[in-house]
Design brief:
The protein has 253 residues and is an alpha+beta fold. It has helices at residues 29-41, 78-92, 107-123, 129-139, 184-192, 199-206, 212-232, 243-249, and strands spanning 4-9, 13-18, 21-26, 49-53, 56-60, 65-66, 148-151, 160-162, 170-173, 180-183. It has a 5-stranded antiparallel β-sheet.
Length: 253
């Protein structure tokens, strides 16, 4: 009998693995709707949907291994990171979906959210004032007009799989619940968050001009906005290589 493994679990959703099947339990069916629709539309390898019975979505495991994990050194080759960049470019060049995704929040909404989170971080002594102030300044470069693209919206390196037999090709991209129209550079920043040393490889594979200052701005913005959520849901943003370290890197970068 296959063992049931908890992949991730918090108050919003849980994902279980039983053999080669993942069971995603989500009380918000709109998120599941987005995920199923995006996987159907995306021109890149995605998991096969096996069945759906709300609040559960069953999908097949994708082949290969994750590109890496936040907080850990990636053992993937530079060409694997470049392949990831090429896959992201293919997604961004695809016809736009109808929905606006996580990466599509407007400047006014993001500005208000940033102000609120920075105030909370300082007032509650979660992060030093100078660290928040510096990263808030860096983050401003991301608050600008952008051309909508088909974005994944949560393109963590753990969501990108490459050939597990030593190859460098992308075999699957998972977790599409935040997908939709959005800022392409948000995806590139999320993919390289905590792995700045691989940004050049990703951009080389992406094959288009990329404003690196905006990518770095998204590192700061995404990290500032994420600290409270991570703490509230039982994760540690201060773990080595994670969000707080990303913010600290901007103090010297």
């Amino acid at each position: 009998m296959d063992e049931v493994k908890v992949v991730v679990a918090h108050s919003e959703r849980a994902t279980l693995r039983v053999g080669d099947v993942f069971l995603k339990v989500d009380g918000d069916q709109a998120r599941i709707d987005v995920e199923v629709e995006a996987m159907d539309l995306a021109p890149v390898p995605t998991p096969e949907v096996l069945w759906r019975k709300p609040p559960v979505l069953a999908i097949a495991a994708v082949p290969g291994r994750a590109l890496g994990r936040l907080g850990e050194a990636s053992t993937a080759s530079p060409s694997a990171w470049a392949s990831a960049g090429a896959a992201v470019r293919k997604l961004h060049d695809a016809p736009l979906p109808a929905r606006t995704g996580r990466a599509g929040r407007g400047v006014d909404e993001l500005t208000a959210e940033l102000e609120g989170e920075c105030e909370w971080l300082v007032t509650n002594g979660v992060l030093p004032t100078d660290l928040v102030t510096r990263n808030r300044k860096v983050a401003q470069a991301a608050l600008r007009p952008w051309t909508p693209a088909f974005t994944h919206g949560d393109l963590q390196i753990a969501h990108v799989f490459i050939d597990g037999d030593g190859g460098d090709e992308v075999t699957g991209i998972i977790d599409w619940s935040e997908a939709g129209r959005g800022d392409a550079l948000y995806d590139l920043a999320t993919l390289t968050l905590g792995h700045e040393e691989h940004l050049a490889d990703v951009v080389a594979g992406y094959g288009a001009d990329v404003d690196l200052d905006v990518v770095r701005a998204w590192w700061s913005l995404r990290s500032l906005l994420g600290v409270r959520w991570l703490i509230d849901h039982g994760f540690d943003p201060s773990a080595p290589g994670c969000e707080v370290d990303v913010l600290r890197a901007r103090m010297t970068g």
